User: What shape does this take?
Amino acid sequence: MIQFENVGLRYGMGSEILRDISFHIAPGSFQFLTGPSGAGKTSLLRLMFMSLKPTRGLINVFGKDSATIDRKDIPAIRRRIGIVFQDFRLLDHLTTYENVALPLRVQGKDESSYKTDVQELLDWVGLRDRIHSPPSVLSGGEKQRAAIARALISQPEILLADEPTGNVDPPLAKRLLRLLAELNRSGTSVLIATHDLALMDQFDARRMVLNKGHLQTYG
Assistant: This one.
């Protein structure tokens, strides 16, 4: 689904922050991406989402070279990838329901075709009673769950989650990871970037470890 071959990345004229990165994400896989702060985890996710281009090397996304994909085709490919950002990126003037439904509204879909799906998804992540609330009154954990729901509403084939448990307490973090594991069992590939080793130890999954620009894979 996603394949990296000898990928390098640098910003401007600086030294490479990612060097000779090679790995692949298989259909239905569940894995963690970890490493110290500043190791380049977020940059690696942005390369997968095609919001960055590599300095060198090859990235294939669903069989297409990310460096040569026609720009008009990128939105359709990105809809096959759900992404959860560290800063949530919820819109303050929209309700929880409207934030989650936004990707479908942008696609021009009629509300009657997705209203029930949005409500059921919010119920699944435990936000049924927050459906009409704006982000300003949500807790950090509630915002995180809303961001996850928004990433899932288009039924992506891959979910990329950047520190999805970084703003919640340990019990809620474990609950969020269980939700993502349940999503994976339904067929979606899941890649979670995290530095929480104790949380990773609770799940039997492959680990990709970034350190000093290089990637090592375990499991």
Remarks:
- Residues 88-142 form one domain.
- The chain is about 30% helix and 25% strand.
- The helical segments are 41-48, 74-78, 96-106, 115-124, 140-152, 170-185, 197-200.
- The longest strand covers residues 2-9.
